[in-house]
């Protein structure tokens, strides 16, 4: 577990899981939303993002949280030795995006660039949530079924799976 990609739909708990996993493993955490977006939520130029992403992948160890863009996703998943795919029922994703919005009224969401507009980003999360569910989730599921032959795979399908996964890492990291 030296190159870990944590991925899944919007509102999957990727940032929370990644932060805990980084603390347990000592791997440096890279949050793609903070690479792809600057403070205030403005998207950085695409080539700048791709260059930064490539620099992260070139390191000996990393823990990468998030999506970034389609082009970088498949490259990252191919480079990772460990895949953590959070694949919850869509209703859970929807609820967690809603919960993140409500909590965000009082405290900025984890993994978001500073001063990101909460309402605009939440509305975008709902849009992405549905598009990902329809288009990307089937591709992710197909990919992880094949990747399980050559990589360490954690396909987490519930909140209990996430907790068990983190608990198993806690036991092995002692």
TrEMBL record:
The keyword Transferase applies. InterPro entries: Cytidylate_Kinase-2 (IPR052922), P-loop_NTPase (IPR027417). Transmembrane segments: none annotated. GO terms for molecular function: kinase activity. Keywords: Kinase, Transferase. It comes from the Bacteria. This is Adenylate kinase. It comes from Thalassomonas viridans.
């Amino acid at each position: 577990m030296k190159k870990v990609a944590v991925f899944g739909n919007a509102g999957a708990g990727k940032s929370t899981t990644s932060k805990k996993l980084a603390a347990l493993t000592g791997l440096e955490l890279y949050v793609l939303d903070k690479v792809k977006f600057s403070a205030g939520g403005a998207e950085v130029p695409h080539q700048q993002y791709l260059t930064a992403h490539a620099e992260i992948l070139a390191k000996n160890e990393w823990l990468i949280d998030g999506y970034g863009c389609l082009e970088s996703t498949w490259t990252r998943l191919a480079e990772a030795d460990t895949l953590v795919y959070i694949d919850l029922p869509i209703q859970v994703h929807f609820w967690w995006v809603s919960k993140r919005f409500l909590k965000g009224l009082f405290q900025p969401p984890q993994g978001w660039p500073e001063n990101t507009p909460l309402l605009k980003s939440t509305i975008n999360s709902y849009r992405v949530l549905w598009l990902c569910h329809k288009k990307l989730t089937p591709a992710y599921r197909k990919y992880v079924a094949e990747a399980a032959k050559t990589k360490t795979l954690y396909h987490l399908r519930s909140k209990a799976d996430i907790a068990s996964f983190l608990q198993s890492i806690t036991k092995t990291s002692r």
